[in-house]
Design a protein that fits this description.
The protein has one domain. The mean pLDDT is 76. The longest helix is centred in the middle third of the chain and has 40 residues. The two termini are 14 Å apart. Helices cover 81% and strands 0% of the residues. It is built from ten helices and no strands. Helix 5 packs across helix 10, helix 6 packs antiparallel against helix 8 and helix 8 crosses helix 9. With 273 residues, it is an all-alpha fold.
Length: 273
């Protein structure tokens, strides 16, 4: 364990330079921006079929997104939904296309981390990207439904077994930890399936833990900085775009570093064997 950690840091620093992590993160930020609004439009289009509201969807984004960006996101989503009530088909097509391009950029970054080339057929690679896109949409919807059904489950258990209000307080705290856990599951699946290399699920866990913790902490820290010290409002409406792109850029760096950690860990374990 000690040898692995001591070898990880210098190798990771070298890989950051060799694999152009910051350049690839910029590509991811661009595709994240293209994917954001189609994804939100698609999710908002599902609201009539789910026991959630449009505000529930935006609240999930608000938990992590820098405050400056929420006004931009809410304004655009409200304008689009008011102008066009038949968004589901457009949302599906736009989300699949833009998000699968984002997944392809992630695949490229992970393949570079493992020093492998993309040999899968275009149809297979694109199909995998589309399946991962649908999987992420499903997980996102699940994350939205958890607070709704989690509350009902807690109330049922409390009334059925005659538990105190303290139980409900603990239950509410535990169920809100569901979002980071779901995020961990998403990252694990991404690190396991995306690279063009045969991997075990357990080998994807170190990077998934790093990405989950790193993304949550960096998002909260950046959000705090923007609200407390940043003066992006001086740039007018473009300030929100700047904040959004910086947040996506940081997120891209975290995701790619998770893949690099898995690749380095895999190489160290192979040498040990």
């Amino acid at each position: 364990m000690g040898r692995t950690f001591s070898a990880l840091i210098p190798n990771l620093w070298r890989r950051v330079e060799e694999d152009d992590v910051f350049g690839l993160a910029a590509q991811l930020a661009y595709f994240f921006l293209l994917s954001l609004f189609p994804l939100l439009i698609f999710l908002v289009s599902l609201v009539p079929f789910l026991p959630i509201t449009q505000q529930d969807i935006l609240n999930v984004v608000r938990d992590f997104a820098p405050g400056e960006t929420m006004k931009l996101i809410e304004t655009n989503i409200n304008e689009i939904t008011q102008r066009n009530g038949t968004l589901l088909s457009f949302g599906i097509i736009a989300t699949i296309w833009s998000a699968s391009n984002g997944i392809n950029a992630v695949v490229k970054a992970f393949n570079k981390a493992y020093d492998v080339k993309e040999t899968r057929h275009f149809i297979i690679a694109r199909g995998m990207a589309i399946l991962l896109t649908f999987a992420m949409i499903f997980v996102f919807v699940l994350a939205l439904l958890l607070p709704v059904f989690g509350r009902q489950i807690g109330l049922f258990i409390s009334s059925e077994f005659g538990l105190s209000g303290q139980f409900l307080a603990i239950w509410n705290m535990v169920r809100w930890l569901g979002s980071p856990f779901i995020l961990f599951v998403v990252f694990t699946g991404l690190y396991w399936i995306a690279p063009n290399k045969k991997l075990t699920c357990i080998s994807a866990v170190p990077g998934a833990i790093f990405a989950t913790v790193g993304w949550v902490l960096s998002s909260l820290a950046f959000s705090y900085y923007v609200s407390s010290f940043g003066n992006f409002s001086a740039y007018g409406s473009i300030g929100a775009i700047i904040v959004l792109m910086i947040w996506f850029y940081i997120s891209g760096i975290i995701i790619i570093l998770g893949g690099e950690i898995n690749a380095i860990n895999s190489k160290i374990n192979k040498e040990d064997c």
